[in-house]
Amino acid sequence: MKPLLVLCVLLAPLRAHEGRITPDVAEDARVSYEGSQLLKVTARTEGQKEALHKLQDMEGVDTWLRLAINSSTVDVLVKPETADKVKEFLGSSGLTFDVVIDNLQAAIDTENPTMSPEEMEELEGRKGHRMTWQSYHPLADIHGYLDYLAQTYPQFVTLQTIGTSVEGRPLKVLKISSNRPGSPAIWIDGGIHAREWISPASVTYIINELTENRDAHGEAVKNVDWYILPVLNPDGYEYSHRVDRLWRKNRHVNGKCAGTDLNRNFGYKWGGVGSSREPCQETFAGSHPFSEPESAAVSSFIQNQAGSLKVYLSFHSYGQYILHPWGYIRAVPRDHADLSRVGRNIATAMYQAGGASYTVGGAAAMLYPAAGASDDWAKGAARIKYTYTIELRDRGSFGFILPVQYILPTAREALAAVKTLASEIANVR
Ligand SMILES: [Zn+2]
């Protein structure tokens, strides 16, 4: 080991994150995906679609993209130890597949080239923070950037900690104020699912544009108040950077397994279809609605802004969908014509900004039912009219392991989405 590397390893725990200091994880404790393959499996008949349903819930299979109503494919991650079982199942069901990623660990290793400590120091000295949109940053860089903005633009930026995570990390909401009393407001969150790194990257890009490049974004944007939580699940996000790149849930230990799916823990139609009562499952809904401090803090904060919030928007990945309620049932809300019209405007704006096509529809009607998600709660309980979940890029060429050169085009699309929503609510005021 080179002396410089030793120093970095020793220093790492100290600058790890605010709040509780946890020991850093040794390189060899990282979860390895050596030899794991991402398969895109295709059904050609109704019988084969039934087989796809079986496959996506099979033990040992991590389903990245489930079977949607109008789709005939699923994306599944297959580990070497289950490869034989899965391929035998595929063969006997007549399902065909493409190997999209041949060795996931190799993809993970090249996904996110990070800067050297010297480069980071230089950047921080020059800009006052370490944030870029050329790599996926750890939580400390994102929070450091929010602190920098609050200090640099006190006339319109304020930073508030609305609660703390299971492991004691702060939930930091940045408010960008219009400074006009009575302005309509937009809520944006990112990173509710830890492994969806493009989400916090895009949300911080939006923050950057609305603060450091404020004059470029027109009157509608300036007449709106913004509440933005870029990392809703900070424990999971850090864990996905340090230990398991594919971690999804928060880090609440429930018996023998860790993690509650925060996007199944919200208290509207909680515990229904598409969520699990089993703590070891990826969609574990928690022991009761808002059992988790992260989802509970978000719901309290949003309810305290009652009346001013006209938009609830949550960024996820992947699949390129603009989803509106409902998610718990294959029905649409009474005002779905409005949600659908604005959703299509968002899709047009996103396409013009970055060139990717996004599909608009009701979450359960277009994909599959999932109860206890944040968007259903925002619509059904907090009564926020324009409620959307946007699944960012891509459509499964890289999935969660989206290389860094896609950050900027994806983030520009995300910015176009929020500007469309800002124009909409500024006009209907
Ligand atoms: Zn997600």
TrEMBL record:
UniProt-recorded name of the protein: Putative carboxypeptidase 9
Protein's GO biological process: proteolysis
Signal peptide stretch: 1-16
Keywords from the named record: Carboxypeptidase, Disulfide bond, Hydrolase, Metal-binding, Metalloprotease, Protease, Secreted, Signal, Zinc
Annotated GO CC locations: extracellular space
Organism: Reticulitermes speratus
Xref: SMART domains: Zn_pept
Cofactor: Zn(2+)
Subcellular location(s) of the protein: Secreted
